[in-house]
Amino acid sequence: xxxxxxxxxxxxxxxxxxxxxxxxxxxxxxxxxxxxxxxxxxxxxxxxxxxxxxxxxxxxxxxxxxxxxxxxxxxxxxxxxxxxxxxxxxxxxxxxxxxxxxxxxxxxxxxxxxxxxxxxxxxxxxxxxxxxxxxxxxxxxxxxxxxxxxxxxxxxxxxx
Length: 160
What we know:
The chain is globular, with a radius of gyration of 18 Å. The protein has helices spanning 5-18, 28-35, 39-51, 76-83, 92-95, 110-126, 131-134, 138-148; strands at 55-58, 64-67. By secondary structure, it is mainly alpha-helical. It has a two-stranded antiparallel ribbon with strand order 1-2.
């Protein structure tokens, strides 16, 4: 399971906007430079986020992008849903039925149970984590996430 670049960079764009505070705004070139992405890609992501009612735009000399709501009222789950959707949606089995109209495993599917459980776990963390939470440093965020889920080894190691 992988996050797409749209998910990653879209969330990063949201954090750049959140760092401006409730009264501030930021432009596409500023976001582009801060995240090392092209202006065109930043514009595409911001368009998706604006259409999802997570940010608002203002034109003109003092224009730019700002959050549509305070950072503590926008969850990461909302952002991810706007950017790419959920891992497991109710219509998942109908979309993956192979060449048949109905999946051959529609009445007894252990895989469906797995994806449903994974989605519940993701929802648990993402719906309780706000953009405001993500404005902290990595150590503070690790502590916050560890409080949300049971982690056997709090010294989680990531390949970065």
